[in-house]
Design brief:
Strand content: over 45%
Oligomer: single chain
Largest sheet: 8 strands, antiparallel, barrel
Distance between the termini: 37 Å
Order of helices and strands: HEEEEEEEE
Structural class: mainly beta
């Protein structure tokens, strides 16, 4: 399917180019968990491009090296659909600030002992 988008004088909308938008998330981020069973917990995650144009993969979330959490990004927001990776179930959402110098992440992780609700901040 060929989709033609013509936008000459539209306002600058950073959801127009999903690849360029996704690139803002890619890289290594330092996580600080401010709530949850193990807080305060500090660890790095690696965010890489997923298979879809608007998909990212967060490796190491919840300080689980085997966890590869897929998320869908749109502009400055991301959503983590319910999924199981590395023996842990994840679900949540996040919001990046305008300059992408910080991502606020809110997610639930369940390793079988019940959901652990996490509020985390990621910085590059």
């Amino acid at each position: 399917a060929l989709i033609t988008v013509t936008s000459a004088c539209e306002t600058d909308d950073n959801t127009e180019d999903p690849l360029a938008n996704r690139a803002k998330y890619v890289g290594v981020w330092q996580v600080t968990e401010n709530t949850g069973i193990n807080h305060p917990q500090f660890y790095p995650v690696n965010i890489s491009a997923g298979t879809e144009d608007d998909e990212i993969v967060i490796t190491g979330l919840y300080n689980e090296s085997g966890a590869k959490v897929g998320a869908i990004v749109s502009g400055n927001t991301l959503s983590i659909p319910n999924q199981n990776t590395g023996g842990v179930s994840f679900q949540g959402s996040g919001q990046a600030n305008a300059s992408f110098s910080q991502i606020s992440l809110s997610f639930a992780a369940d390793d079988g002992s019940g959901p652990d609700n996490i509020e985390a901040v990621l910085v590059p």
